[in-house]
Write a structure and sequence with these properties.
By secondary structure, this protein is an alpha+beta fold. The protein has seven helices and 14 strands. The protein has a four-stranded antiparallel sheet. A four-stranded antiparallel sheet has the order 9-8-10-11. A three-stranded antiparallel sheet has the order 6-5-7, with helices on one face.
């Protein structure tokens, strides 16, 4: 694991930062079978819809939109009900519904429904779980804080936009940190393929316009350098795509950078490498390996990683510098770009696999 303090904080810590005085408990969250909530101490019960009325969820009532216990997230496939504090749901004009584990999956579905929906009918309603309330809010009318730090909130799928029923609350959320601004508070209509790539890129299929995006590592894919099953090491995976769309998968950044340094020894094609992705050391998600900064780790005991030793990839050079500054045996000179990986570095990290 990375040295130094991490920034992970739970939902309650973040809400405390924002000055929330108390957690909200809406009546419908634990209603009785007859449709009335328990009301709490002096609380107001949720009225039962009269015959012929339909509660469509727009009142924010948690019971208004139910997530089936066995429903799979329409984007990532996880069991949605396992994450009640993050759930989402969508309804199409033909009444087809889909459930989501998180707001990141819900907004990704909205951005590119053609990749996930079981119907061509337009989306008529969307609900997400409010970041503060913990209950369903109208996702069509919500304000979303575009969180980019996977360590700030302990949420599933590592990174999600934070939905708020009130834009002022979303603004307060981004104002609490220096890396976000009010421009990072958006409406649902802002979610396009680019934002879908940011939050759920590994679950998107390449389009005709973008056939060289990172894809999910197949469960049976062998590392193109060492031969191990790449998917067994999701926190270290890498992949490359060539100009002729040939793909290669890697168990770790050491194998990925070795492949880049000497592709002639491992590639199944002579076409140039057109894209390379590695798993960020801090984020645990794919980052652009061609634009990453690599800390040239040499101590196999510092990090419990596959293949003994690997360069540590970071999307931000400053984070790579902080990584090497934490020890005496590395300096800022040990932070390099992908272009620095030549046969000599390949020998250092994967010499036993070189011809």
């Amino acid at each position: 694991m990375p040295t130094g303090d991490r920034f992970a904080v739970g939902r309650r810590t973040v809400l405390t930062m924002l000055g929330t005085a108390a957690s909200v408990s809406l009546a419908g969250c634990s209603g009785d079978d007859d449709g009335e909530g328990d009301g709490g101490d002096g609380g107001t019960s949720t009225p039962t819809p009269t015959e012929g009325e339909q509660n469509d969820g727009t009142d924010g009532n948690q019971d208004a939109v139910e997530i089936s216990e066995d429903a799979s997230c329409a984007v990532c496939g996880m069991t949605a009900a396992n994450f009640p504090k993050w759930n989402g749901k969508v309804r199409h004009e033909d009444d087809t519904e889909a459930s989501f584990c998180t707001s990141g999956c819900a907004t990704t579905y909205y951005a590119v429904p053609e990749q996930f929906a079981e119907t061509d009918a337009a989306i008529s309603d969307l609900w997400v779980t409010g970041f503060e309330s913990g209950e369903f809010i109208d996702g069509m009318d919500a304000a979303y804080a575009l969180e980019t730090d996977s360590d700030r909130v302990d949420d599933p799928m590592r990174l999600n936009p934070a939905p708020f029923a009130d834009r002022a609350d979303a603004v307060a959320y981004v104002d609490a940190v220096e890396y976000l601004t009010e421009d990072d508070v958006v409406e649902l209509s802002a979610f396009d393929r680019e934002l879908a790539e940011q939050y759920r890129g590994m679950h998107l299929e390449p389009t005709d316009e973008d056939t060289r995006a990172a894809v999910e590592v197949p469960e049976d894919a062998s590392c193109a350098v060492c031969g191990m099953t790449a998917a067994n090491f999701p926190e270290w995976n890498g992949q490359a795509v060539h100009a002729d769309d040939t793909r290669a998968y890697f168990c770790s950044s050491g194998c990925a950078t070795t492949y880049h340094a000497v592709p002639d020894e491992f590639a199944e094609t002579d076409a140039d490498i057109a894209g390379l992705w590695v798993t960020g050391f801090e984020s645990g998600e794919f980052i652009d390996g061609t634009d990453a900064s690599y800390a040239l780790e040499t101590d196999s005991e510092r990090v419990d990683d596959p293949m003994g030793t690997n360069p540590a990839p970071f999307a931000d050079r400053a984070d790579a510098v902080a990584y090497v500054d934490a020890v005496e045996y590395l300096t800022e000179d040990d932070v390099v770009e992908l272009s620095a990986f030549d046969r000599e570095l390949a020998e250092q990290y994967r010499g036993m696999h070189l011809g």
